[in-house]
Design a protein that fits this description.
Blueprint: H1 9-27, E1 30-35, H2 43-48, H3 56-62, E2 68-75, H4 76-80, E3 84-85, E4 90-91, H5 92-105, E5 112-118, H6 123-134, E6 138-143, H7 152-155, E7 173-177, H8 185-198, E8 203-208, H9 221-229, E9 237-239, H10 241-247, E10 252-254, H11 255-272, H12 280-283, H13 295-320, H14 325-337, H15 347-357, E11 361-365, E12 371-375, H16 382-395, H17 406-419, H18 429-439, H19 444-450, E13 460-463, H20 469-478, E14 481-484
Helix pairs in contact: 1-3, 8-11, 9-13, 9-14, 13-14, 16-19, 18-19
Length: 498
């Protein structure tokens, strides 16, 4: 079954690169372009806009690569608190180095990084600066400015932006990006504009944020999905009243951007003598809304993402022992979208299987609509069982045939429990896949099943208990979209292993 496409990737690349070029012409000098979201692994956009590939934005920038320099910033406070990028499970400081490597491997110029909100006594941040400089990167230190962003007179002065070190860039289009939100991209861009003007160089600012999509309705599922993705911030999409007043056109923007616009406009006027923007929408260069080719497909995909985000919020609350504020906000967004958890097709079959067996269960929907379930047994966890069942179905192998015999599983169980200190003898998804790979050398059925793994990418899965980190990682690497009920397999245990 072919995936339904609702977004024109090539049109987006063409329109977006032309629009950025036009904005550079309007600025008439160096443009500092703040990039919101992920540049080359934007999984959220690819889920809610089928056809949008995770590397869409970086592919667009490759069209104008010779003009582009990438400036990466990282918040010193995120280093001291060991902030982790949730989707990859790595520290922000490690992700910054990963980003440099990826950008350079694609031919982009990356020489400078900016350490934002640096304060005295942050030894972890200073240690990272030393490490980055040893690796050949140039590091500009930006300090905490008292009263930022409201004290505009101080900010735009020698005691404000003037105290920040200037990152010496060499290209006319500087893309400002970061490992994640709260890294100080806006302040970095504005500080650079200040220093450019102090040196007699014309420079300006623009923002490239995919979501919310400004020319879609406020409660369009794609925009609601963005709200659901940011429930931890307690922010929302709103009508840009500045744009409505200035142009008579109703557009959608993020509440924080709308609230901050008067200050940002004042800052730009102080920095450059004038501002070309009458609204937050004016500042943006996002053309994604013009590239939706099938609204129904994007609506359906976004609705599924909203439900996934609801489950994600519930699981995070359960893991961290938090209250229900985030999941309640996600539930409100579901209500706005007119959907419920049962609208996710894999939820009911997984729960029914768990009820029938009295054990944790899981369900996967294949691309042809076939529903595959798995239950927990003495040999296999429910996710591992479901995975084997799915591969058997895709390979056309009879259900009665065992891909892995009990004789091949038991030595692995013995290794786990007697030598590696595990109390759970059941095989996880990674162990099952390794065992299947070994079996494939001599067994045709195992080989046929293994060949079907690529068909799992993009499939939906639901489990009735919270996944462990191993199973979670395997599904992520396979490209499977997983949700879980917020229930631990060991319900009475106080300590829950991740």
């Amino acid at each position: 079954m072919t995936h339904k496409i609702g977004f024109d990737r090539e049109k987006y690349i063409e329109l977006q690169s032309k629009h950025i070029h036009a904005r550079r012409e309007e600025i008439g000098g160096k443009l500092y372009l703040e990039m919101g979201g992920k540049l080359f692994d934007d999984m959220h956009a690819s889920r809610v806009l089928p056809g949008f590939t995770p590397d869409n934005k970086i592919a667009m920038l490759e069209r104008i690569k010779e003009d582009v320099e990438i400036l990466i910033c990282i918040n010193a406070k995120d280093i001291s608190r060991q902030k982790v990028r949730a989707d990859l499970g790595i520290l922000y400081e490690d992700d910054l180095l990963r980003l440099v490597d990826v950008f350079r491997s694609r031919g982009f110029l990356v020489e400078n990084i900016v350490m934002t909100q640096l304060e005295e006594g942050n030894s972890q941040a200073e240690a990272f600066i030393e490490k980055a400089e040893r690796l050949g990167l140039k590091v500009a230190r930006h300090r905490v400015i008292p009263g930022y962003p409201t004290n505009t007179d101080l900010i735009v002065s020698e005691e404000g932006f003037g105290r920040n070190e200037f990152a010496e860039t060499s290209r006319d289009l500087v893309v400002v990006t970061a490992p994640g939100p709260g890294s100080g991209k806006l302040a970095t861009a504005l500080s650079q504009v200040y220093h450019e003007h102090q040196r007699g160089n014309n420079a300006g600012y623009a923002k490239f944020e995919t979501f919310p999509i400004w020319n879609l309705p406020l409660e369009h599922p794609v925009n609601l999905a963005y709200e659901a993705a940011t429930v931890d911030l307690n922010d929302s999409n709103i009508i840009d009243h500045f744009h409505l007043s200035a142009h008579g056109e109703s557009t959608v923007n993020y509440n924080r951007d709308v609230e901050a616009f008067p200050l940002l406009r004042t800052l730009l006027e102080k920095l450059t003598g004038a501002t070309p923007y009458q609204s937050p929408t004016d500042m943006g260069v996002n053309m994604a809304g013009f590239c939706i080719t099938d609204d129904a497909v994007c609506c359906a995909a976004a609705q599924q993402e909203i439900i996934r985000r609801y489950f994600k919020a519930q699981v995070e609350e359960a893991r961290a022992g938090l209250g229900t504020e985030q999941s309640e906000r996600a539930a409100v967004i579901m209500a706005k979208a007119g959907i419920k958890v049962e609208d996710r097709p894999v939820v009911v079959p997984a729960r029914q299987r768990a009820e029938e067996t009295g054990e944790p269960a899981s369900a996967m929907q294949l691309h042809d609509g076939t529903m595959i379930t798995g239950r927990t047994s003495p040999l296999l966890g429910c996710s591992a069982a479901m995975l084997l069942n799915a591969l058997k179905h895709l390979a056309g192998i009879d259900d009665d045939i065992h891909l892995l015999s009990p004789e091949s599983i038991e030595p692995i169980q013995t290794l786990k429990t007697k030598h590696l200190g595990s109390k759970n003898p059941r095989l996880h998804t990674d162990e099952v896949l390794i065992a299947l790979s070994v079996s494939a050398a001599k067994d045709d059925n195992a080989r046929k099943a293994l060949e079907q793994i690529k068909e799992l990418a993009g499939c939906d899965v639901h489990t009735t208990t919270i996944l462990g980190s191993v199973d979670e990682g395997i599904f992520r690497n396979l490209g499977v979209l997983v949700t879980s009920d917020p229930v631990f397999a060991r319900k009475k245990a106080l300590y829950q292993k991740r």
